Amino acid sequence: MEEGLFLRRIREEFPDVAWTSHRYLTHGWDHAVLILDEALVFRAPKTEAYRDALANEARLLRHLRPRVDVGIPDYVYESADGSFAGYPLLTGRELDVATFRGLSETERERIAEQLATFLTAVHETPKSVARKCGVSEQDPRKDYEDLRRDTEKLVLPRLAPHEVRVARAFLAELAAELRSTPPTCLVHGDLTGAHILWDAENQQVNIIDFSDRSIGDPALDFDGLMGYGHDFAGRVLERYRGRKDDGLLRRAHLYFRRGSLETMADALQGYPCTFEEGYAEFRARFSL
Questions:
Q1: How confident is the model at residue 26, as a pLDDT?
Q2: Binning pLDDT at 50, 70 and 90, where does residue 29 land?
Q3: Please, how many CA atoms are within 13 Å of residue 280, restricted to the half-sphere of its CB?
Q4: CATH of the domain at 66
């Protein structure tokens, strides 16, 4: 939604909401965002598919809120036509790798514990509840075939010969892993530093952006934690009280490395990321 129209719609739908300043953000993949007075966040889906999903996201979060100890969006404003919704801003700084490295060991322990209790609650949500909130189920084999096709067609022609060998060996390893069927549950689906906020003053984790929620492998929610190091992901898993299996962290590491191929392929298909970003991830995650 264009900035001026977005502001006008908020005034029309919610005349009691007043503000003196705003920030308009469009760099997200799925939503345009308006932040009013650094106090309220309004999100407007960029496509019809996400527009249909926004009301379902709000419904799911209303179910989760009393069951989790971390902060999650509380959609107190929903437009009549479902084209946008808003919630009080959640405090904290994005927990990127640089920020994480600057934290004390005590803070890291608190974050690990809060993430573990959050993931336990999300993953233990009955699938029947998730489905009533419009959550779809992943198809890992289709996702793999899409990745293999896009990697072969778009990414490999841009890589050096030794990098091509590494990428193809990884795809074979991932295919072998997917021959078995892991357990599935409700997952956040994009639990990275961009969506984990750390409120240092209150020693509180807040989680945002549930757009990629799905019913899928619980290892998907440990994928992003690999960015802080395998040991930290393992620390969260130790405190996690959901269903565990011996291969969970192994799959999480595979998904973490897979993300670099996805970023390169997405960039070459016009998504809001860069090939250089994905290539840097590829070099780092495969130790090249």
A1: 78
A2: confident
A3: 5
A4: 3.30.200.20
> What CATH number is associated with residue 140?
3.90.1200.10
Specify whether 14 is located in the same domain as 59: yes
pLDDT digits (tens, 9 = 90+) for 30-40: 889 999 999 99
Q: Could you give the number of structural domains in the chain?
A: 2
Sign of the four-CA dihedral 9, 10, 16, 18: negative
Strands 31-36 and 22-25 turn out to be: antiparallel
- Distance between CA atoms of residues 231 and 251, nearest Å: 15
155 lies in the same domain as 212: yes
- What local confidence, expressed as pLDDT, does residue 181 receive? 85
> In this structure, are 56 and 99 located in the same domain?
no
Residue 235: pLDDT over 90:
yes
Domain region containing 63: 3-88
Q: What angle do CA 239, 251, 71 make, to 5 degrees?
A: 45
162 to 21, 128, 169, 272, 286: CA distances (angstroms): 51, 46, 11, 28, 12
User: What letter represents residue 234's amino acid?
Assistant: G
